[in-house]
Write a structure and sequence with these properties.
CATH superfamily of the largest domain: paralog of FGE (formylglycine-generating enzyme)
CATH topology of the largest domain: paralog of FGE (formylglycine-generating enzyme)
Number of helices: 15
Strand content: 5-15%
Strand order of the largest sheet: 1-2-5-12-6
Order of helices and strands: HHHHHHHHEEEEEHHHEHHEEEEHEEH
Length: 520
């Protein structure tokens, strides 16, 4: 190659290199600009058409509402730390594409935004390592004793229990007064339309429905007379979604009893709390021993203040009271018994299923095939579940909007009971065992379950369940340790669960002795 040719070659290639360099700089600067712009709060909010998200952020600790005035931005919580490099950019790309797709294809008006506030959703979009990137000192000056205890508990159990910062601090990014993790002060507002203070309980002289009045309160509730009878308890193996713990099917005879028309409401539970609340955590065996012989109802030691409002901000009054322990439900029944002079208690598992069926022997107390109601199965990829019938009777995953419902939202079963299926799980008095049915004869009267155990029976399913799990025969166990995962107290609360919002209970009342004798 001659000198002129070489000169021409280098000149041409140097020009190309210069152009390439300039384009590279432009691309680099443009990419950097896009990267920076796409990380701004404004950019995030352009896709997230989320009602009140910006306002709740500005009101929150992370939105600048703190003594230091520091403001935390969207990407600092909803992406891993930037120093993580590949993980950061991978999460940013994945989240960006997902959000853009949702923005282009979904109707924001049809999204259940309330459920997006829940911890179950938040743990999927908040990175715990990002929390710790900023909060390098978990024991800053001024942290109170409760905070120190809680943070020590976190350090000891973070990996073992899969704890995250937002397990307790869910409201720091988007302010929500119902998610403040601190002891509740005072009581929520009481029901307004009935201010009469009852002086005596309702006398019961016949076996028929009655409205109980709790003396010294303005609270009343309906009790339904459940006639005794024999039914087949459990489910046959050919019932859709049958589980092994629902068999063998037995012929069970149940004596007559009264049962609450609805689950115990917040009105009822707050009345109990107001009259019995305590500051200390007295051991259950001590309380039970004292109250067993003490006729003074005021001697009953009731719940300590819960952390935050256990009604989850859904509202009280007629909604079911939730998050209490089995022990707390039993003490409520003891208090109610002493206030009214009757014997209130939790239902046995046999009583519960008999009442739920309302004289039927089908999967539900209403007509319908669980396979058609359920979202489970291959066909649900192509056809929607049938909700026309079940929606009228059950608060479950398809219609609950991820929270409990008032009893007025559903129709009663044949006995006149509401929300026996779905809404919230209900405690029974029985200890739970997978093979409980096999432990008794095939023909049995008023069974009370195993003599001992570690968990109690819960029945009915809840508002998060599929139709398959709210059948009359469906049974499950309480999960005591799991439901107390984020409780940092030592010893842990005997009254309130910190990690479940779908457990409640319903009371039954035995027939008065004189009425029992008249029916023999």
């Amino acid at each position: 190659m001659g000198f002129k040719s070489k000169k021409k070659f280098f000149k041409r290639n140097s020009t190309l290199l210069s152009i390439g360099f300039i384009l590279g700089v432009i691309l680099m600067l443009g990419g950097h600009y896009i990267y920076k712009e796409s990380s701004t709060d404004k950019s995030c909010q352009s896709c997230h058409i989320h009602p009140h998200a910006e306002d709740s952020w500005k009101l929150s600790t992370h939105g600048g509402n703190n003594p230091s005035g520091v403001r935390v931005h969207c990407v600092e919580c909803h992406l891993p730390p930037e120093k993580d490099g590949v993980k950061y950019f991978s999460a940013k790309a994945k989240t960006g594409m997902k959000d853009l797709w949702s923005y282009l294809t979904k109707d924001s008006a049809e999204i259940n935004w309330e459920s997006k506030k829940d911890l179950e959703h938040a743990v999927k979009i908040v990175y715990n390592e990002s929390c710790k990137e900023c909060h390098v000192n978990l024991f800053p000056a001024g942290l109170n004793d409760e905070g120190i205890t809680a943070h020590l508990y976190y350090e000891e159990n973070e990996k073992k229990l899969d704890l995250q910062c937002i397990s307790c601090h869910l409201g720091v990014g988007h302010y929500d007064p119902n998610r403040i993790h601190a002891k509740m002060q005072g009581l929520p507002s009481a029901k307004g339309e009935n201010k009469e203070i009852y002086t005596e309980a309702t006398p019961v002289t016949t076996f028929e429905n009655f409205t109980e009045k709790i003396p010294t309160t303005s609270v009343s509730f309906n009790m339904i007379a459940i006639p005794g009878g024999t039914f087949q308890m459990g489910s046959p193996e050919n019932e859709p979604f049958h589980q092994a713990n629902e068999s063998p099917v037995r012929n069970v005879t149940v004596s007559p009893f009264f049962m609450g028309e609805i689950e115990v409401t917040w009105d009822m539970y707050w009345a109990f709390y107001a009259q019995t609340m305590s500051e200390g955590r007295i051991a259950p065996d001590v309380i039970m021993a004292n109250n067993a012989t003490d006729p003074d109802v005021d001697a009953i030691s009731g719940p300590t203040p819960p952390f935050g409002f256990p009604d989850q901000g859904w509202g009280g009054i007629d909604r079911p009271a939730i998050t209490m322990t089995h022990y707390a439900a039993e003490i409520f029944c003891q208090w109610l018994s002493k206030r009214t002079g009757k014997n209130y208690r939790l239902p046995t598992e046999a009583e519960w299923e008999y009442a739920a069926r309302g004289g039927t022997q089908t999967p539900y107390f209403f007509a319908g095939d669980p396979k058609k109601f359920s979202d489970q199965g291959f066909m649900r990829k192509f056809f929607d579940a049938d909700t026309a019938v079940i929606n009228s009777f059950v608060a479950y995953a398809k219609n609950s909007l991820n929270k409990s419902m008032e009893p007025a939202k559903v129709l009663p079963n044949p006995f006149g009971l509401k929300n026996m299926l779905g809404n919230v799980m209900e405690y029974c008095s029985d200890w739970y065992a997978d093979d409980a049915y096999a432990q008794t004869p095939t023909d049995v009267t008023d069974p009370k379950g195993p003599e001992s155990g570690t968990e109690h029976v819960v029945r009915g399913g809840d508002f998060t369940n599929d139709a398959a799990d709210v059948r009359c025969a469906s049974r499950a166990a309480s999960q005591h340790d799991k439901w107390l995962k984020t409780d940092p107290q030592q010893p842990k609360s005997i009254w309130w669960y910190s990690d479940t919002k779908s457990i409640g209970f319903r009371v039954v009342c035995d027939m008065p002795k004189a009425e029992t004798d008249n029916n023999q």
